[in-house]
Amino acid sequence: MERDYGQEIDRLEKELEEMKAQLTSVMELLTASASELKGLGDQKKHDFDGRDYVGHVQKMKHMHPDAHVNALMDDCENACGQGGDTGRITYLGVFASGGNQSNWVKKNVSGNELLELAENGTARSVLACIGSQEKLNILTALLRKPSNVAQLVEKCGFGSTGQVYHHLKPLLAADLVREMSGGHQKGYYEVVPHRVQGIVMILCGIADLTASRYGLSRFEKAAEEAETGEPEA
């Protein structure tokens, strides 16, 4: 009996098509299963270990005993995670001294924008303007109470009014300090009202930087090395 090779080939091709279809179905099932497993893994990451995420940000619950503060933190975390930002910062405060008062509220300030202030040289310019101890003494004296030059000599330990004017000049040029006008206020200086919050917030940052037990000593050592150009033995 002669073999019908044509029929055999047709049958083999049909069987190959059926096997191909079966393999395709298996691959689809495997892909679906992998997706489901990944979903379970994500669920475990988010739920089973007690953690919750918004984008790349892990939610940190109950960080503060005040529910209102926790709500602000929750808002920052959501905004940061949803926006893909490096951070979101909300802060507020009041500073009242010497008859003047400044109040401020900043919500969801971008972490990316804050980093840009360091990268584009803005932070360096500001810190260089106020960075000497003499200028800081003047600023803090004026934050406590508007003063004239003679009073600044006494409060800040200067040897002459000329020294005060020397350090006061760049603060005036930077619009950090202004001379008051009108009646008995003439000749007195004060921190420009809309600059108060910035100066106070810089001090808040310094308080954070030096909060640890070794924080201040490390900065003092680094400052001494920067001035002498030599590392301490």
Share in β-strands:
5-15%
CATH class of the largest domain: Mainly Alpha
Largest sheet: 3 strands, antiparallel
How would you state the average pLDDT, rounded? Answer: 86
- Count of extended strands: 7
Class by SSE composition? alpha+beta
N/C terminus separation: 103 Å
Q: Which CATH architecture of the largest domain?
A: Orthogonal Bundle
Instruction: Output the number of helix runs.
Output: 9
> What is the global morphology?
elongated
CATH superfamily of the largest domain: Winged helix-like DNA-binding domain superfamily/Winged helix DNA-binding domain
Q: Topology as H/E string? A: HEEHEEHHHEHHEEHH
Q: What helical percentage do the residues reach? A: 55-70%
Detail the poorly predicted runs.
40-45
Strand order of the largest sheet: 5-7-6
As for the number of domains, it is 3
Radius of gyration: 33 Å
CATH topology of the largest domain: Arc Repressor Mutant, subunit A
Name some characteristics of this structure.
9 helices; two-stranded antiparallel ribbon; Arc Repressor Mutant, subunit A; 3-stranded antiparallel beta sheet; alpha+beta; single chain; 233 residues
Describe this entry's structure for a reader.
There is one protein chain. The strands form three sheets. Strands 5-7-6 form a three-stranded antiparallel sheet. The protein has a two-stranded antiparallel ribbon with strand order 1-2. The protein has helices at residues 5-48, 67-83, 111-119, 122-130, 133-144, 149-156, 161-173, 193-209, 215-228, and strands at 53-54, 57-58, 88-97, 100-110, 147-148, 177-179, 188-191. It folds into three domains: 11-51; 53-112, no CATH class; 121-233, Winged helix-like DNA-binding domain superfamily/Winged helix DNA-binding domain (Arc Repressor Mutant, subunit A). It has nine helices and seven strands, in the order αββαββαααβααββαα. Residues 40-45 have low confidence and may be disordered.
